[in-house]
Amino acid sequence: MNRLDSVFVKASRHAPKPPEGNPEEKTGAMSEEHPNHQSTPAGITRREVLRLLSASAAGAALHLTTVQLAKAVSSSPSRPHLHWFNDSGTDHTLLALQGHSMPGYADLVTNRWEMVAHRGIFPTGFRPERYTFQSPIILVLETIPDPAAITPGEREAFEKLVSMGKTLILVGTEACYGGISIPAKRIGWLKEMAKRLRTPLLKLPGVPVPPHHLVGVLAHLEYLGFPRLDAHLRPLLYYSQTICEACEHRRSLEAGMFARDFGDEGCLLELGCKGQTTYNSCSTTGWNGGNSWCVGAGGPCVGCSEPWYPAHGGLGLYGRQSPGVSGVRGKIWQNVEGIGLGLLGISVAGTVLHLLRKAFAPDSEELEDS
Amino acid sequence: MSNEKWRLYRVEGGASLASGPDGLYLESGPSRFIEHSLAGRPQLEAIYLTQQITADGGVAHALAAVKAWEDAGGLSVAENGRVLRELLHALSIIHAHLRQYYYQALPDYLPPGTLKEYSGFHPDLRRISQEISRKSTTHWTRFNFTHPFTEAEVNHLWEQSYRIEGALVVLQRMMAALGGKFPQIMSIVPGGVSVRLSEALLLRLRDGQNELRRFISRELIEDVNIVLKGYPHLGKMGKGLTNFMCVGEGESDAALESSLFPSGFYLEGKLERFTSAATESIEHSFYQLAQSPGHGRRGLQAAPGKENAYSWIKAPRHAGHAMESGPFSRLLIAYLSGSQISDPTLVESIQQKTAQALNEANTVGGRLLAAIGEVVGLLDHCEILLDQLDPAQPAILNESDPLASSGEGIGHAEGPAGTIRHVVTLDGGRIVNYDIIGPSTWNGSPRTPNGKTGGLETALNHTDLDPENAEDRLDISRIIHSFFFSMSDAIH
Asked: Which of B73, B325, B345, B348 has an alpha carbon 20 to 30 Å from B491's alpha carbon atom?
């Protein structure tokens, strides 16, 4: 096994929960009769895609690798059509994609990505119903229609779309877990529908979703089959390590050097950073070309890719703040207090256990004698 | 009435055109009630969450939120922090204008099918042109309509659209350096910005600024002139209001002097000093006063079946007048204030292309020229801002405790599409009540009981346009896109 493969094998140790539907059935995962070194009709080997994906997940030459992956997706002759549903949502994801030059506007417009439907790019006067699908589609959902607000006809059309989907990708935290615009029960409705129609579903959470995640997953679907997912249906390729693991302040955390105010040096834990419990690639890959990221600009991670965002079990985005007790002025935050109390509890329990074992265990000298 | 074929594309938040007894207007889904969702949260979260109202104007919303907090708590801002915020603000407006003009507005003039006709020398565009020729005839990338451009103009506009992507990449990289990530900035905090200003950061910003010079120059205005030459009726079409506003950085004397945009009202032909007072009418909006006082937006709740209501947008007014805001308003007020930031050449160009005096030139052509002209002016302003930064000084002041802030605070900012106002009532740093008026709420507002409509509705009904007619529908889309309108911002 070589080093590149190990990224994916490492990911597989996380024992992924099977996705909704049967991915093998609709996507055709990597098989024995199509070895890695064999060229695909597009002239790009699977090994090459694997190498690019590893580099993408590791944040190596991010811009270049993502552009190459996008090219790999667009040059595959069997690529499915992308049907992008963003009916009443904002343009955050589109904007992040446009500013990544990948796919740029010309790519979107000229359909190198086989973008079948996207409200944000359609030309005025075009009638989408005139378009007929010629191959399976990948359904990218940034918003989810309200089953109570749409007509039975619209509901039927949406179900048909989901049933035609080779894969269903939920993009952005709201679409993945619900939020201000999308109630969580609507996600449940969609998941149930995907399961019933046997359409595999995966989630790409984030505010917004990093563009290279979407490109990487599309490339994975096209060349390597359905990606391995974690318990929250996120691809392990990009969501297998916590923010803290590769954070630039990791050493400060271990040394106990914490920023007490915004703008200070040190780990941002006391400013409410959720890096320890957030699974995403930001600290490895960075944002907008990889030059910076939230923590890099002195902003604590707000855990935007987690299902409990933004409430975080009552802690809120930046921890519980109140004047004189905790807050941006460097007092102790309640989430830190919680963690501290937890650690204290573990230490006390450990000490008690140790003392108990010592009290009831045979004397070490006796053991030596025997 | 409204139907699916009147659905509008490239409008954030989704919108469709509708026609009523009083003329054309826009329809949308219900409000997201973001103000309600902020109640009880710390104000720090409002800085983050209000950026989700709109992608292009998110930075300006964050700035308005932090200013409201600083106003409530009487907090000071570090000079470096002020400059870095202003830089972030200027870059976000440049980004929004370029994206809006080249990718949202231009497809109304240059259909995607024209790429098939591309005969220039750009290798990528040539390849894409060949690809598009192979597409099915029903595919949307083959969609075309009659256009007036010459072969050279088609080539030029496509090359520019392709080129501008490069500018967006650089702009996003610069904003990420300042704010962590874009379009969701993480560094705006009370007292300044959390990013540590260093020589290395300054070097990166200067490098980005120099790179932007490769993409942005006065020649960009030529791209609008080509469109205006091809569609001369844009100089007169879609005339909006004649009352304008610009909040700049607020109403204080200091703000007036240091402002990126000079503040003021242009009301019934006279320039007036800006005041933050504004009222909002819900007469024709799907809202009603709640039986019991709620939180978030004091005592307001949804009323989807309300009689006489036709919009989810509320109707903000200044002294009973509908006001228009945005790049054109900013240019007019800066010009009439005698501000150095106004560009006399641009004013001259607008007057010439629209064949009207500047205060009458609020048409599709006037608005597009003002926006692209603003891009050029803002890039020059960024140069000045970079010179003001001192890496030896902090970017944030941590003197007082913002979490102890209580009382009401008002924060203003000029977003890409116009004026933003946040009013917050805080109790110990937590939100008791929040009130947001976004630029698209000002411009897209429905009529009030006195019959006055907002800028967009006025513009839609200024020219007699029939939505059943495909040509007219294109003109309607051109009018809407000239406002850089966002429905998600309007109904937040």
From this structure: B73
